């Protein structure tokens, strides 16, 4: 392949990358960078000027790499709950949309859990926000320790949490929901000064189907949670 054809192939590949949705910043358009030994072959003062330019290019490339890393970190923090470190509602919405798409495309099995804490408002009002935060972080740690790395957990806001569990059958999902209720109710952070439990949880669960949209799956999980709360006589 001659030089002209090679260059044409490179440009066409860039077009295909951009058409496929590759971020423009990640599509290479630069030729191989000049090396210092190339500059040394040049006469002075051209050599000095080229060396200065190469140094400046290296500096700018370093600043650009730092800026990109900072932008990625900011984007990650925008989808993270600052108290628990879990995904927030925005981050969870993205994960749920991805999950629904995967279930539709590949027929995978996934369950959506909605968790609402019972008695949390009373704890927060009577014992203060620090105690409330301790409850939320304890619940978060419990959820993290009882799911797999491939599963997804989020704090949607207030005392509401959500989970996506992969490769689980409906009966196992129901058993998992009840087990989570028991574990949350047993947390030391949810007990009063006398050691009596004041915290509970209502966990609703639904299987994500190939006909779902994220909104439909969320609404069904939310209804299941409220049905469970009413059946248990749970309060906020």
UniProtKB/TrEMBL annotation:
> Where is there biased composition of kind Basic and acidic residues?
1-28
Known InterPro entries for this protein?
Diguanylate_Cyclase, GGDEF_dom, Nucleotide_cyclase, Rev_trsase/Diguanyl_cyclase
What EC designation does it have? 2.7.7.65
BP-aspect Gene Ontology terms: cell adhesion involved in single-species biofilm formation; negative regulation of bacterial-type flagellum-dependent cell motility
- Name the Pfam families on file: GGDEF
An MF annotation (GO) of this entry: diguanylate cyclase activity
Reaction catalysed?
2 GTP = 3',3'-c-di-GMP + 2 diphosphate
- Print the keywords alphabetically: Coiled coil, Nucleotidyltransferase, Transferase
Q: Where is this region: Disordered?
A: 1-47
Gene3D superfamilies in the record: 3.30.70.270
Q: Where are the transmembrane segments?
A: none
Which SUPFAM superfamilies would you find in this protein's record?
Nucleotide cyclase (SSF55073)
Coiled-coil blocks:
50-77
Q: Which residue ranges does the record assign to the GGDEF domain?
A: 108-236
Q: Gene Ontology cellular component?
A: plasma membrane
* Protein name according to UniProt: diguanylate cyclase
Q: From which source organism is this entry?
A: Blastochloris viridis
Q: What is the lineage of its organism?
A: Bacteria, Pseudomonadati, Pseudomonadota, Alphaproteobacteria, Hyphomicrobiales
